[in-house]
Design goal:
Blueprint (H helix, E strand, L loop, with lengths): L12 H13 L2 H8 L3 H15 L4 E4 L2 E4 L1 H21 L11 E7 L1 H18 L3 E7 L8 H4 L4 E5 L7 E9 L1 E6 L11 H6 L1 E5 L7 H8 L5 E6 L5 H7 L3 E5 H8 L4 E4 L8 E8 L6 H16 L1
Parallel strand pairs: 3-4, 3-5, 8-9, 8-10
Antiparallel strand pairs: 1-2, 5-12, 6-12, 7-10, 7-11
Length: 304
């Protein structure tokens, strides 16, 4: 910027809109109608522009107005600049049929197992250019990856939702118990005392108690956790080959019981249902692309 260039910080950008209209119409009254101002207001703006730029910009030639050399040189760049600004201020559009982008979703393997096949099939039909990147997140809390921007969405079980985050419930899940089909200590039903005395598998990344421990404590019992594991989908295969018992999602249990030697039994005590939801950060709240993805997930979860 040269020393005699206008200072943009002190420039009323409305003057540039008026100048664009004047250079297009070459007529004060028509320019005024174009920008929705009165003729005196446009004349006043033209006077300010002449002082600011040190050039008459438009001069009389008979009954018409013609642009000076300086104005002609400004016209193309001015229109391009205003068009770029209009484009930047226009709300973003998202067309699922033509969009090409990737979303990062933090989720457990259980969520992937339940939702991902139907979700991918739906996206293949409606948004073939949309791709998903799944990041393992086994913790029962809202992921910090949302705040840092490393993930666009989280799907799972969580409790509190931090400030500047949003969430939506998707579906509920109930627990069932699984043991191997020929377990030596479990008959047609699973009694409470037998259940508490067996070796359990707990799916958890933490060292704290699980929902089963809390439920047993309410009736004065404890269990022995023989294995802590971070992946839900490993549990059925392990139970099928051992004397472990595990409380897992009925959706996972039913799917694996069809081809593994497993028995699916109701829990011998009341266990809370898990509420699976999706959570996201405020930064993506109003994004049409993210709104589309969240809506598709909502519809797929409804079918589940």
């Amino acid at each position: 910027m040269t020393s005699d260039s206008p200072n943009l910080a002190g420039l009323n950008l409305n003057l540039l809109v008026v100048l664009d209209a004047l250079l297009t119409e070459k007529h004060v009254s028509r320019a005024a109608a174009r920008v929705g101002l009165s003729q005196p207001a446009v004349s006043n703006a033209l006077a300010q522009l002449r002082r600011l730029l040190g050039d008459p910009l438009l001069v009389r030639s008979g009954r018409a107005m013609v642009a000076t050399d300086r104005a002609q040189a400004l016209a193309v760049s001015l229109r391009a600049g205003l068009s770029a600004l209009e484009g930047a201020l226009t709300p973003p559009q998202f067309d699922p049929a033509t969009a090409e982008r990737t979303f990062v979703i933090a989720a457990t393997d259980f969520v992937e197992f339940v939702l991902l096949p139907k979700l991918l099939a739906r996206l293949a039909r409606t948004a073939p250019g949309v791709r998903l990147q799944l990041r393992a997140y086994p913790h029962h809390r809202v992921s910090e990856l949302l705040e840092t921007g490393e993930a666009d969405l989280q799907i799972g079980i969580y409790a509190d939702v931090p400030p500047a985050h949003h969430s939506q419930a998707l579906f509920q899940d109930r627990f069932v118990c699984i043991v191997r089909r020929d377990h030596p200590r479990v008959g047609k039903r699973l009694g409470l005392k037998t259940y508490a005395s067996l070796q359990h598998i707990l799916v958890s990344e933490s060292t704290g108690p699980g929902v089963v421990d809390i439920a047993l404590a309410k009736v004065g019992l404890k269990r022995s956790v023989g294995l802590r594991i971070s992946h839900f989908l490993m549990v059925p295969a392990i139970v099928a080959e051992t004397d472990f018992v595990a409380a897992i999602s009925h959706r996972v249990a039913d799917a694996f019981a069809s081809h593994l030697p497993l028995r699916v039994l109701p829990p011998p005590l009341s266990l809370p249902r898990g509420s699976v939801g999706q959570a996201w950060h405020e930064r993506t709240q109003h994004s049409p692309a993210h709104q589309f993805l969240r809506q598709v997930i909502t519809e797929v979860a409804r079918d589940v």
